[in-house]
Design goal:
313 residues; alpha/beta; Nucleotidyltransferase, domain 5; 3 domains; five-stranded mixed beta sheet; 11 helices; elongated
């Protein structure tokens, strides 16, 4: 139901006063003219709805679409239900249509003839491959330490966090470096292999230049990191370009690092950063219970497998 406006109440009061005291006195009291009062008295039929302002929109326009243009638009829309505004306008222009794009847009909106866009195909993720034992596949990535955390004499320096996560146990090995290159990646790999208690079969990384030359000018030549993997007999798996979710476990750990470590810590030197990072990873991350592990910590899961040969599944 339409609401009663303040203007309608004003007109009703005006008419009632004019009927009781006359049009002249009503015009003086309400500060209007007699013609205004007579016009609304003629329109008033006893209901307040008759005092509503009528639309002043014209019934026609000298530049409105002709019957031939309307028929052309309807015929073309029937044959091209999914075409967008610009493509649809171009096809109309090729058949003699002379109107502008805004004019066509207004006509399509008014006539509810806008394009019917088909739904985008739904993304169906590939079934996740569950690892069966530690070392079957390890995700490796590099995190740039936020500049806001580096203070004091080290303010203009850059620090990097190398991270490796075992997909089975979620056990994490981290190391601090002051550069990110294929050389530091090789150093990290050597330290990871020595620190992890089981043989590593596969290392999974993104396509960064610190790991591979896949998108470089010398892509046929393996990087120092890849050569080291070959010498150790470890398979190197590269994720799809621009798809960080394929390295999701290590990416998620970096997000948690921002929340639980970098948001509350500052580093005055590289040695200070390296020490704090190792303490945080040993005390916090590897000893923190996780839901995918049945609310066991990565350290407990790894120890249980080494001691009893059991899984968390």
């Amino acid at each position: 139901m339409a609401s009663i406006t303040q203007d309608m109440r004003y007109r009703l009061s005006l008419i009632k006063y004019a009927e009781k005291f006359g049009v002249t006195k009503a015009a003086i009291k309400y500060k209007t003219n007699r013609q205004y009062i007579y016009r609304w008295k003629r329109r008033f039929d006893g209901s307040i709805e008759s005092l509503r302002e009528l639309s002043r929109r014209p019934h026609s326009h000298p530049n409105q679409h002709s019957e031939a243009e309307i028929k052309l638009i309807h015929d073309m829309r029937r044959r091209n239900p999914h075409e967008g505004l610009v493509v649809f306008w171009v096809k109309l222009m090729q058949r003699g249509y002379k109107r502008s794009i805004p004019g066509l847009y207004r006509f399509l909106r008014k006539g509810k003839l806008m394009a019917i866009k088909p739904a985008n195909p739904k993304y169906i993720p590939k079934p996740y491959e569950q690892m069966k034992y530690p070392g079957q596949r390890v995700q490796v990535d590099v995190k740039h330490v936020p500049a806001a955390c580096i203070v004091g004499d080290a303010k203009d320096q850059k620090f990097y966090q190398y991270t490796a996560i075992d997909e089975y146990s979620r056990f994490r090995f981290v190391e601090a470096f002051n550069e990110s290159s294929t050389y530091t990646s090789t150093q990290f790999l050597e330290h990871l292999v020595n620190a992890f208690p089981m043989p590593i079969e596969c290392i999974q990384t993104d396509n960064g230049f610190e790991f591979t030359k896949r998108f470089g000018s010398h892509k046929l030549n393996p990087s120092l990191f890849e050569k080291k993997l070959q010498s150790l007999g470890i398979r190197h798996k590269l994720i799809r370009p621009f798809t960080p979710r394929h390295n999701g476990k290590v990416e998620r750990s970096h997000r948690k690092d921002n929340e639980r470590f970098y948001a509350t810590h500052s580093f005055f030197s590289f040695d200070d950063f390296s020490k704090q990072l190792n303490i945080y990873n040993r005390r916090d991350y590897n000893n923190f219970p996780m839901r995918p592990l049945g609310w066991k910590s990565p350290r407990t899961t790894l120890i249980n497998f080494l001691k009893y040969g059991v899984t968390y599944v």
